[in-house]
Design brief:
The complex is a heterodimer of chains A (78) and B (160).
Chain A lengths: L7 E5 L6 H11 L6 E6 L4 H12 L2 E8 L2 E7 L2
Parallel strand pairs in A: 1-2
Antiparallel strand pairs in A: 2-4, 3-4
Chain B lengths: L7 E6 L4 H16 L3 E6 L41 H15 L5 H10 L3 E5 H7 L10 E4 L1 H9 L3 E4 L1
Parallel strand pairs in B: 1-2, 1-5, 2-3, 3-4
Helix pairs in contact in B: 1-3
Classes of the chains: A alpha+beta (78), B alpha/beta (160).
């Protein structure tokens, strides 16, 4: 997926667990259903943490990637 | 359609040192982000964490705390020297800042804002002469039975 497809951008680079998850959830709470959130994080545990949070809250992970030690996530608010 | 009941976590926070203030608040804020209903019962020294006058300056002492990390080899008994607790607390605050974690006051704001239920133990307040006005806004005051009623329906119950 491309960044241009996202509605909201969250830069969580440099933040450690559990901050990436908290900020991601906070961002999702301000969005309308159907909107897409793009998140960048450097925390190694972010992938597992965000997936766990999405599993519990029901929002959809559209795409996930990793480039130059930065993890990216495209999340759709349900 | 059957409505799934929300998961619940109950935490009892009985410690008031800087290091032990983090686990309840970090777990609570993370759980809330996972749609879990959270309640923290602050008792004994834990009440300092919700006390406006005290929560800026929580301390951690190296004395009798062999798990405390130190940049140089350090005989534990030296922790009795004046200033060692202040130094250890400053060191810990530095370590926390290094991993980009919020301070306790900031973390408390995050928790209260996201709906974590905070309850201070009534007998502890009486015992230590702390009044409800000394507590942060949004903190309730209740006794053990009320909290246990909340905890009986909790999926996770923790004692810190």
């Amino acid at each position: 997926m491309d960044k241009s497809e996202a509605n909201v951008f969250l830069d969580a680079k440099g933040l450690n667990c559990p901050m990436p998850v908290l900020k991601t959830k906070k961002a999702l709470d301000t969005m309308q259903p159907g909107q897409i959130l793009f998140v960048e994080a450097t925390d190694k545990g972010a992938k597992a943490d965000i997936n766990a949070m999405l599993k519990r809250t029901g929002h959809e992970l559209l795409d996930a990637g990793e480039k130059d030690n930065v993890f990216t996530f495209f999340i759709k608010k349900v | 359609m059957e409505e799934k009941k929300k998961k619940r976590m109950a935490i009892i926070a009985s410690k008031g040192t800087l290091d032990m203030a983090y686990p309840p608040l970090i777990l609570a804020s993370t759980a809330v982000a996972m749609d879990v209903e959270v309640g923290i019962f602050f008792t004994l020294y834990g009440v300092d964490i919700v006390n406006k006058k005290k929560y800026h300056s929580l301390k951690v002492a190296p004395i009798a705390n062999p798990a405390m990390p130190s940049p140089i080899p350090f005989p534990n008994i030296l922790g009795v020297l004046p200033g060692m607790t202040a130094m250890a607390s400053m060191m810990m605050k530095g370590m926390i800042k290094k991993i980009n974690w919020p301070s306790i006051p900031e973390l408390m704001d995050v928790c209260l804002e996201s709906g974590v239920r905070m309850i201070a133990c009534t007998p502890t307040l009486e015992m230590t002469g702390v009044s409800k006005n000394d507590l942060l806004e949004g903190v309730e005051v209740a006794g053990a039975a009320e909290f246990l009623d909340f905890a009986l329906d909790a999926n996770i119950s923790l004692f810190v």
